[in-house]
Design goal:
Mean pLDDT: 95
Number of helices: 13
Structural class: mainly alpha
Strand content: under 5%
Length: 209
């Protein structure tokens, strides 16, 4: 237990995955002054999520709540008026801010692979980073191989859902129509996380002048 307390990592991403539609369904409850009562009712009665298995429903509510609390309320107001093209990218942004394990995979492996000749990323590439993290974090080192594989699968699945990874494990810049938004909210690092080149980022910055 002490190991977990001292670790910034969690394998909780395996408990839900991307959850875009579920996030949209749950947002009105999370934004309500009666949040706790409404979430408790949802866990029991399944009114908006429509996830039949109660354990899966509880897990989804816990993870969406965790993500919601990482961001300021204003972000979620912006999120609700984003287009169906913009929302998946915005949720990816939230995931990187919520789960350090995903952030480390992305910055230490995916972005580097994109900037190399390979421009691809697969399970083995991520596993190498997992081993690096395990070597310095006792809690992550205690995870089973099955858990580690689930975390890797969840991460690669997220990249596919946002259009950053194709079936052949080749990386590509995801399509998004509101990249300037992340500069406006003071999160310029996210443009690099979306695999934009420095000249593209500079062009976006100049468009805001």
């Amino acid at each position: 237990m002490a190991m977990k307390i001292n670790s910034p990592y969690t394998a909780a991403i395996t408990g839900g995955g991307f959850l875009l539609n579920e996030t949209l369904a749950l947002l009105p409850l999370l934004q309500s002054e009666d949040r706790e009562e409404l979430l408790k009712d949802e866990r029991l009665n399944n009114r908006v999520l429509l996830i039949n298995a109660e354990t899966s429903r509880k897990r989804a509510i816990a993870e969406i709540s965790r993500r919601y609390d990482v961001m300021p309320p204003a972000f979620w107001q912006d999120f609700l008026v984003m287009t169906s093209v913009e929302q998946p990218i915005a949720l990816f942004f939230v995931l990187l801010k919520t789960y350090k394990i995903l952030f480390d995979f992305h910055v230490n492996v995916t972005i580097r692979r994109w900037n190399s000749v390979a421009k691809s990323v697969n399970n083995d590439d991520i596993l190498m980073e997992f081993n690096e993290i395990s070597a310095r974090d006792a809690f992550v080192d205690s995870w089973s191989e099955a858990t580690k594989n689930k975390v890797i699968s969840a991460y690669l699945s997220i990249l596919r859902k946002i259009g950053m990874l194709n079936r052949d494990y080749q990386l590509q810049v995801p399509y998004c129509t509101n990249y300037p938004y992340y500069l406006q909210i003071g999160e310029p690092w996210f443009l690099e996380a979306c695999l934009l080149q420095p000249y593209q980022i500079e062009k976006i910055k100049n468009s805001l002048l």
